[in-house]
Design a protein that fits this description.
2 copies of one chain form a homodimer. The first copy, chain A, is α/β, with parallel strands linked by helices. Chain A contains 12 helices and 13 strands. In chain A, the strands form 3 sheets. In chain A, strands 2-10-9-8-5-3-4 form a 7-stranded mixed β-sheet, with helices on both faces. In chain A, strands 1-12-13-11 form a 4-stranded mixed β-sheet, covered by helices on one side. In chain A, strands 6-7 form a two-stranded antiparallel ribbon.
């Protein structure tokens, strides 16, 4: 049988993720596997937790990686907190907000939804009105809506909820490591992300943090978490001082993420955020020169995920195919309501470099000519 | 901050998993990441499915890898099939049978348990009696009980259930790739495993297969699967012809498993099974020379997982520490009822080689002197 791995090309990954990975991270992935209770692996996990806390700006003890992708993070957030009939408010302005609604509903929550047009941010005033009228156990929102490129006002919503009994769940799958995140200051109880976007590692892990308040809610449930694999009390006992076996840690993925976070912190998060901003502005300027428009108004744009309107008369799929086949560049198509209407250009991880912006703009110039 | 990855030693992993990994698999892990819809990745996934079907001896279309460890496989098996109050029989003769009971119970199943002493196999006659008395939607068993080193009579139980409406779930976490598995012939409806044991890849993926009958049961549920992340209908739509986005495939782990399976099939499964058997027999002979005894009677012993009774007067933990620190060899301790009473010596994946058996026996000779 032909070994297809030998034909893997190096693609410039400018879609919604996974994105490009620094060479040091690839090297880290192939370090020798260690046992799930090995003392050296325990030290690596401990330092990994410390780095995650720095990037999230939290002191939460339960700050770990789940052995699954960012979607497992969403599942874990809700399955540990939702009890049947519990009241949940999800703020929806895109595909991933809809997914959050679906995840919570499947777990038996009584889900209310506040919807906002795709491409616009969640309106804090509407949220304020809703949470003053009704009492919710959980409010959930997507920080960076990957389907539209909108940044939601996570800090402002957190300020609204301060002092209430509501647990505040924030999806940072696309935002963490690319824009500021101050979990504790912003009153966030639950945060989860993924390895393959702004953190600069391949997919497979989900960094996650639960506040003490959120952990107390999980521990105080009437019934056990109906998901043994993602039960955070059990998982916390493994990551904690006693290292009680739960499931086998995916050591090599952990090595990759450890290396990726080390590189980010060495660069300095402020520098990383500036780099993201600059490359985003360079991309937007170049796209405008090509007469292309972004879906989102300027104040609400994410630097790492740019939804670009497909110009009239252009077959969007054939553009993506030509970019991939002739130029070895991947960009993303639209999801849900926006399928066929936008391209999604990601500038995340090792992808967010000026030379990559120039390479894409050069390729687009030829393909759209 | 010190980069702890630079101090990772090459440990001879002779515990219950993870086990050693061939050099080609480490190389595969660090191939360039591809997008989750990339046409070349789709070809890799398709060939991976074909290789999994060969190793499982199944024609099931839904034969995939889950983005989680073997424990996610157990969770997926039950969460897709269990409906509240549904009757489930779990055959328990060790720690992982108990885990299966716990997973099913958390999902709201009405769980019956048939228990057998740890270190002995499930008694098919007792199962026969039980399933003639009662009607179950699901019967679940562990093929290779990793806590004791016992092989359960999976084929015989499958024959018992043939013609009934009961779905037969088999945990092949420790068995797959090390002893024969004939999923379709043995009437198995659901099979799951892990990447890091006999398949010879680091941890992080769970190969899984559902029969048509099991998929029909999942599709015919009254309520949606209360776990969006592990919903096999959705996951199947991604692995199927239409490649509908569900979550981001952990591409680099997939490369590792692809390479590992390629090596196994190149060697030939019959040859692999003989190699396991030979190395097991060499280990047992060497242990007996050292006056050590196995927990399990000869006819029920697994070749890949050997539970060895800790000799009286020996501090089992200090032996394991010396093996790890002085000889760079990891063996496992006991779990549950057997904590402190046995060592678990794994001969799986790249670990199952004669030179490794000799190295361990030499080290034990020195440590136990």
């Amino acid at each position: 049988m032909k070994n297809l791995l030998e034909d893997i090309e190096e693609v410039l990954l400018m879609g919604p993720g996974p994105n490009c990975v620094p060479p040091e991270v690839y090297t880290a992935l192939s370090r020798k596997t260690l046992g799930y209770l090995d003392a050296h692996l325990m030290r690596i996990l401990e330092d990994l937790q410390g780095m995650l806390r720095k990037i999230m700006n939290t002191k939460n003890e339960l700050t770990i990686t789940l052995s699954g992708t960012g979607s497992a993070g969403m599942e874990a957030a809700f399955v540990n907190l939702v009890e049947p009939g519990g009241r949940v408010l999800i703020l929806v302005n895109g595909f991933f907000g809809q997914r959050m609604q679906e995840v919570a509903a499947r777990l038996g929550a009584a889900v209310d939804v506040l919807e906002f047009p795709w491409g616009t941010p969640v309106d804090t005033k509407a949220v304020e009105k809703k949470v003053r009228q009704e009492s919710y156990k959980i409010v959930g929102v997507i920080h960076a809506e990957t389907s539209t490129g909108v940044q939601n006002p996570v800090q402002e919503i957190g300020a609204l909820l301060k002092g209430s009994n509501t647990l505040y769940v924030v999806d940072a799958v696309t935002s963490l490591g690319g824009i500021e995140m101050r979990m504790d200051e912003w009153n966030i109880d639950v945060l989860y992300s993924c390895s393959q976007k702004c953190l600069g590692c391949p997919p497979g892990l989900s960094p996650l943090s639960f506040s003490e308040r959120a952990m107390a809610a999980a521990a105080g449930r009437k019934n056990k978490v109906p998901n043994w694999y993602l039960d955070l009390t059990l998982i916390g006992n493994y990551w904690g001082k006693n290292h009680v076996y739960h499931h086998t840690t995916p050591s090599n993925m952990v090595y990759g993420l450890y290396q990726a976070l080390l590189l980010l912190l060495d660069e300095g998060m402020e520098h990383v955020f500036s780099r993201y901003k600059e490359n985003h502005l360079a991309l937007v300027a170049g796209l405008e020169e090509l007469n292309m428009k972004l879906l989102v108004e300027k104040p609400y744009r994410l630097p790492m995920l740019n939804a670009v309107l497909v110009p009239e008369g252009i077959d969007e799929l054939s553009v993506r195919r030509r970019l991939r086949n002739e130029f070895k560049i991947e960009i993303g198509g639209g999801l849900g309501l926006l399928a066929g209407k936008v391209w999604r250009i990601g500038l995340m991880g090792y992808t967010s470099r000026k030379e990559n912006v120039d390479r894409l703009l050069g390729a687009l110039r030829q393909v759209l000519r």
